Amino acid sequence: MAITLDMDTRLSLPVDDVSDPELSIVIPALNEEITIGDFLDWCKRGLAEAGIVGEILIIDSSTDRTAEIALARGARVLTTPRRGLGRAYIDALPYIRGKYVVMGDCDCTYDFRQLRPFVDMFREGFEFVMGSRFRGSIEPGSMPALHRYFGTPLTTWILNRLYSCRFSDIHCGMRGITRDGLERMEIRSQSWEYASEMVLKSVHMGLRTAEVPVSFLKDRDGRLSHHKRAGWFSPFQAAWINLRAMFVYGADFFAFKPGLALLAVGLLLTVPLSLGPVTVGPVTFSLFSMLVGLALSILGLQSFFFGCLAQLFYDYSGRARERWLGFFSYTRTVIASAITFLVGLGLIAPLVLTYVQSGLTLPTDIGVRNHLAVTGLLLTIASFTTFTFTLVLHAAALHGHRHGSR
Fold first, then answer.
1. How many domains does the chain have?
2. So what's the pLDDT on residue 5?
3. What per-residue string of b and e applies to 262-293 under the rule 16 or more CB within 10 Å gives b?
4. Are residues 175 and 72 in the same domain?
């Protein structure tokens, strides 16, 4: 039976469709008629050995017999336009019925007869279950050496450093998540980067996470992987867009702590010199050092603020919102910014007055006024930046609250 959902989407139900599945196996497919039959047999065997009732949902955009074979073998088939791997999971979400979801490929490179470890982890209360080829087995010839020994270990290492986590194989295509977690995750990626987005958001969301070993097998004779079909540049493009996802969803790593470090160095070069040059051993720190400190302080402060906003954008628990709204309380911060701004103007005023009295020509012997003016300039810029950041912070928090309440 086929149900037409809209102009682009159609859901086809098999004759032996299961009711009330506990687990949904959700698989995008593109011209996989060579392997789809064996893959579905593997899934059924895996479900039986795991002792769980499950459905198999194929998101198909093929031009061959993939959908026909899948339907005949007992899978639900959601027919959609070809719009990318990540988009396939987005399209599938409204039609997933199981409490738990296992994702992967239908090319028989991941052994779906090994579903039991995923089911066991779900039943122990884990919300996100990553497969790991490096903790399982990798059949000779299944993974190019560049991927196995360089690309995947490197990008996994980068992600672990960015997010303080301990994944061993972030690009493993076989993974599981609760349906509730998948809904709250709100996947946005349309292509390969969905894999990294899922891992990153699982960390931001604080999902209870486990890894299980999986077997990775080489392609069947006569089948070309999607990377090979797309050309030699495809793996590099996939790596780039996955790195982009890591950096975008980990923006606070590059902004928050580095910003605080720059701010600290900048203040150290500026504030102690407010009353004049300071000599430490053979080195004299003077007005030029203050100007460098001024630049570093403003750069660091802005970077810190960007990091705060990034944390707010990826805040699933509400903790970041509560922390930064409390720290930058509107009334207190606005009053403090206004006072700091006026103090800064007061420090700048003597230099401006001297400049006017000198016929708009700066004398060379004004000494401490130069230093105080630089400190005043720092205070005025920092206070105005803090004021505008506070407005943006509260606006972003308000928008996020409204979005989350819908």
1. 2
2. 64
3. bbeebbebbeebbeeeeeeeeeebeeebbeeb
4. yes
